[in-house]
Amino acid sequence: MLSEAAPGKVHIVHGDILTYKMEKAFPKHLKKNWEDEPPNIHIIGNLPFSVSTPLIIKWLENVSKKDGPFIYGRTQMTLTFQKEVAERLTANPGGKQRSRLSIMSQHLCTVENCFVIPGQAFVPKPEVDVAVVHFTPLVQPKIQQPFELVEKVVKSVFQFRRKYCFRGIGTLFPESGRLKRTEELMMTANVDPTLRPFQLSMSQFRNLCNTYRKMCDEDPSLFVYNYRQELRQKKKMRTLLESTSQLEQTEEENQL
What order do you get walking across the sheet with 130-137 strand by strand? Predict the structure, then answer.
């Protein structure tokens, strides 16, 4: 119906936005240098709640790598999110909504919470209100490290958001030597270990990422270390030991 109402002006593509190749969606003549003003391209979307977070993380990674829809330059985005998610995207240090999304979006973009749309404006009506958020990619990111490294550090810090940041940062390191390396990272980055994750400023996250990068350069095995995988392996080992112990106990009882 939209394409029929505006013949030659609207092109409808049926597909999955999470896999659609947006780098092929626009004419090449619209492309601008990254340092220039944003191109005459604008991503506007009323995002389903179920895909809004993975989609914005995907597009933020595209911003970081200047690929996808950002091969055309600093393409702007105006998107809808559940109100609570929008508050996380725009939260300042110390705010109760400060989260991983706050850091990942604000270190790459200027993020503005434009206005709220009440749920009753939609059909069917959602149980929550919706907020419109505007993103303009920055010429220079506030943390100049690879996206994967920044995401790993930020995820680790917010893994225990109610505890001191020292606890989450410790999950960047294997259990063997964890305390020493965590202390080294915090001291070198000049970050107070008793701060809560939501209290950390962007400059403190930048210091943490820069210091962690140096530690990874010295010991490349650090970056591939996965805290949750270590926990799974320990749980698997405990289960195996318990099963072995029970089997030995049963054999002893049978011998009696």
Answer: 42-46, 76-82, 130-137, 109-117
